[in-house]
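If your schedule permits, I should be very grateful for your opinion on a structural question. I would ask you to consider whether the tokens describe a fold that such a sequence might reasonably adopt. Thank you for your consideration; the sequence and its tokens are set out here.
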Amino acid sequence: MPGRHFLHIPGPTNVPDRILNAMHVAMQDHRSAAFPDLVLPLFDGLKRVFKTTTGQAFIFPSSGTGAWETVLTNTLSAGDRVLAPRFGQFSHLWVEMAAQHGLNVEIQEEAWGTGASPERIHAALAADTGHDIRAVMIVHNETATGVTSDIAAVRRAIDAAGHPALLFVDGVSSVASIDFRMDEWGVDGLVTGSQKGFMMPAGLGLSCFSLKALEAGRAARRNNPLRRSYFDIDAMAASNKTGYFPYTPSLPLLYGLRESLRMIEEEGLENVFARHRLLASGVRAAVTEGWGLQLCATEAKWHSDTVSAVVVPEGKDAVGVIARAATRYNLALGSGLSKVAGKVFRIGHLGDLNELMCLAAIAGAEMAMLDTGITITPGSGAAAAQSVYRAAG
């Protein structure tokens, strides 16, 4: 099909030309004396994006799923009790992984379309007078439903309960797009990946550990530690200290990460967040004001600035909308997952995007909905989004 492909899923995201060009490098010796010049600044750059001065960042050749495993297996012991709100596909999958590793997961079920409840977390921790709960696991931005949870409020809930539990946060679709403050929020284990806000291909599992988490890991290794080999941070830290890796790294992705960090710093991290808020506001206006449809996120406090899950009218099939957008208009929209399969389509608005790119996605979604029998006014969504974008000046 002629023309460009419009990728508007919530990840992987568009890879800008600067990063593509940066990754187009000849292979080199990853044991050479010059290699640390590439590697060491990456850790400092990541810490600036994570907003931490004391955390220790790690780069594994993996997806974000590998970073999930890295945080769990390097801090906890087999049989440890963890608390995990579940309110979407990715919180569900992280819970499943924890259980597969032999952790005792206490699940707090929340309605899909909402997020983590600080009040319920506080109640569970306050009731745990023996401090048996070792960690709280939160997905910051649930891409399945377009919901962002309040991590600062979760930290306040933990502190108010006077509980020593570690705080683990999945920031795969929030970091480098939505404000994230590792130190200020007392996050002990951060999980993210290269393919969303960092505007790169999938392939780097990025994590960061607080000093408290590192100490917990040392204690866990003396007491029935979880099994790991590839994702062992001890081996990684020992090599990283001098700018190397314990095994062969993905050289093109490291160069891509260097360029990504440069682009983020050139724009300014707070400007990145503001851009994502603006783009998301326009998409939400298109959905609710223009099309008269609903978002899966049930209240404004849950709205995500990186993805909007659009609920199709009763009796209509979101799968058909997605298929029509792809085959007729060369537009990739995100599908509904698990409980919301067929009920929603998702518009990703994160990474290397601007207003006109979002308007193209909105227009394509409009046409696909009209073609599949969903009654909306042609151009209404685009007009509503334009009003938001033009008002921004």
